[in-house]
């Protein structure tokens, strides 16, 4: 009788730092985290203050099995300089969901909280998954910010048409988890394993 070879997991020995911003789509983050962990990945979460209105630290800690970071200067930080230590940690920074405000901050180089400091300090690839109102997404300023970030190497998973928090249907609904995972896989397979 032949033994079945264990299935190779896509994200074995990979660390993904997931930044959650102030979009209602943050409530879907636990499902994405669970899917990454099922594929062998480690997920460390950084939350903006607004994201905490949509998903709690307790939920993220439970599904990730990791400490969740949101404060720039926590008294019990495990690292000397938290934002640069977190920036050096991952194989990939996944900003999901990404609000219009956070995208604008990245495009402007504003680093006024832990999440934006980590993004500015990291040298790992950054994958941005926008989720917002359709008018906000289609606004020329948001589109300019996205184009500017793409021009310097940021990757994006575009939003899709779907139900929005305002009650309309339009482009701005967060992409499906499978689509996000496919983009993560593509980036990590090109990047190779960290030493």
Structure notes:
It is a single chain. With 195 residues, the chain is of the alpha/beta class. The protein has one domain: 3-Layer(aba) Sandwich (Rossmann fold), CATH 3.40.50. It has eight helices and eight strands; from the N terminus they run βαβαβαβααβααβββα. The protein has helices spanning 29-38, 57-64, 82-88, 100-108, 114-121, 134-138, 140-151, 177-191; strands at residues 15-20, 42-47, 68-69, 92-98, 126-130, 155-156, 160-163, 169-173. Strands 3-2-1-4-5-6 form a six-stranded parallel beta sheet, with helices on both faces.
- Spatial shape: globular
Q: How many separate domains?
A: 1
Number of helices: 8
Radius of gyration: 17 Å
* N-to-C order of helices and strands: EHEHEHEHHEHHEEEH
What is the correct CATH architecture? 3-Layer(aba) Sandwich
Instruction: Record the strand order, biggest sheet.
Output: 3-2-1-4-5-6
Assigned CATH superfamily: Flavin prenyltransferase-like
- Describe the main β-sheet briefly: 6 strands, parallel
CATH class: Alpha Beta
Give the topology, please.
Layout: E1 15-20, H1 29-38, E2 42-47, H2 57-64, E3 68-69, H3 82-88, E4 92-98, H4 100-108, H5 114-121, E5 126-130, H6 134-138, H7 140-151, E6 155-156, E7 160-163, E8 169-173, H8 177-191
Parallel strand pairs: 1-2, 1-4, 2-3, 4-5, 5-6
Antiparallel strand pairs: 7-8
Keywords summarizing the entry:
single chain, 195 residues, alpha/beta, Rossmann fold, six-stranded parallel sheet, two-stranded antiparallel sheet, 8 helices, 8 strands, 19% strand
Compact summary:
The chain has helices spanning 29-38, 57-64, 82-88, 100-108, 114-121, 134-138, 140-151, 177-191; strands at residues 15-20, 42-47, 68-69, 92-98, 126-130, 155-156, 160-163, 169-173. It has 195 residues and is an alpha/beta fold.
């Amino acid at each position: 009788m032949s033994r079945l070879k264990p299935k190779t997991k896509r994200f074995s020995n990979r660390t993904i730092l997931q930044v959650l911003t102030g979009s209602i789509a943050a409530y879907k983050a636990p499902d994405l985290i669970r899917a990454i962990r099922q594929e062998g990945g480690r997920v460390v979460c950084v939350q903006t203050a607004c994201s905490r209105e949509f998903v709690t630290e307790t939920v993220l800690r439970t599904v990730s099995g990791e400490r969740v970071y949101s404060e720039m200067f926590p008294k019990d930080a495990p690292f000397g300089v938290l934002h640069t230590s977190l920036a050096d940690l991952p194989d990939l920074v996944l900003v999901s969901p990404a609000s219009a405000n956070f995208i604008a901050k990245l495009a402007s180089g504003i680093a006024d909280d832990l999440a934006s400091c980590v993004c500015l300090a990291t040298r790992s690839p950054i994958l941005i998954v926008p989720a917002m109102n359709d008018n906000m997404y289609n606004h020329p300023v948001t589109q300019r910010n996205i184009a500017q970030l793409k021009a310097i190497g940021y990757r994006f998973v575009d939003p899709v048409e779907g139900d929005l928090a305002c009650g309309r249907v339009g482009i701005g609904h967060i992409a499906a988890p499978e689509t996000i995972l496919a983009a993560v896989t593509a980036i990590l397979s090109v990047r190779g394993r960290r030493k």
